[in-house]
Structure formats: C-alpha cells, structure tokens
Amino acid sequence: MRLMADAKSGNIDAILTWKIDRFSRSLRHLLNTLDELQNIGVAFVSLKENLDLTTSVGKLMSHVIGAFAQFEKDLIRERVIAGLANARAKGKVLGRRANKPISVGEIIEAHKDGLSDREIALKMCLPVSSVYSAIKRYKVTQVV
Description:
This is DNA invertase. It comes from Candidatus Magnetobacterium bavaricum. The protein is mainly α and 144 residues long. The protein has helices at 2-8, 20-23, 27-40, 56-89, 104-112, 117-124, 128-141, and strands at residues 14-17, 43-46. The mean pLDDT is 89.
C-alpha cells in the first residue's frame, strides 16, 4: 500500500523486484498493479526475469510468470489443506500446546526474590513474555 502511495505521489520512478513472484502471487493483483504503474509512469523492473514491460513479449511473459506464481500459491494451499486433513484423520492434535495456567502470585514472589524474568519463565515453564506481562501489570496496579 505504501509503495503504491509513493508511486502515485511521484516519490519513486521505478519499482525493482528480484522476481515477479516475490512481488505478487495473485495474477489479478499483478496485472492490476502493473497496469496502474504503467498509467502513472512508474517503471517496473524484475531482475531475475529481465522483463521489458514496454514490449508485447515482455507483457506476455509477465502474464505467464504471474499465472505460474498463482498456480504455485494455489498448489501449496491445496497441499497444506490436504496435509492438515490427513493429520486430523490420523488423530493428530494440531496447534501449539495450551499454556498452563499462570500463577501471577508465584511470578511476583519469584520476582521479589530477585529472579530475572527469564529465570522465572524457565522455572515455571512459561513464555518469558507472559512473565514480563504479569510483572508489568503488577508494577502498574500493585494487584496480584
């Protein structure tokens, strides 16, 4: 969004990307963006494909490359969905483990005893961010 806003406001002359499929994996988005860039006079350069979008061949190649990028994205999506369905069918539990209930009182006591956030997290098998948040809330409210 910011890139296109800069292009429309005239802050940039060209957009440089390593590969077209790194810029967009949706053919519709790619074509609309390339068309918009051409209309506002901003060049689009893809280093890997070495495309000249001012020629008919360059435009055709950008369409073909964009179509393959979208095909690849759709294929990955289908494989992920199939893999998840297969895992569920085999009874595999998906997702991360639920965090154990946090005892804010224990965290605060350990903090008062001089343990670092990291030491408390390791001792209580909690994420450091949870320990940090509990201590921060306690410092603000003084409520356990």
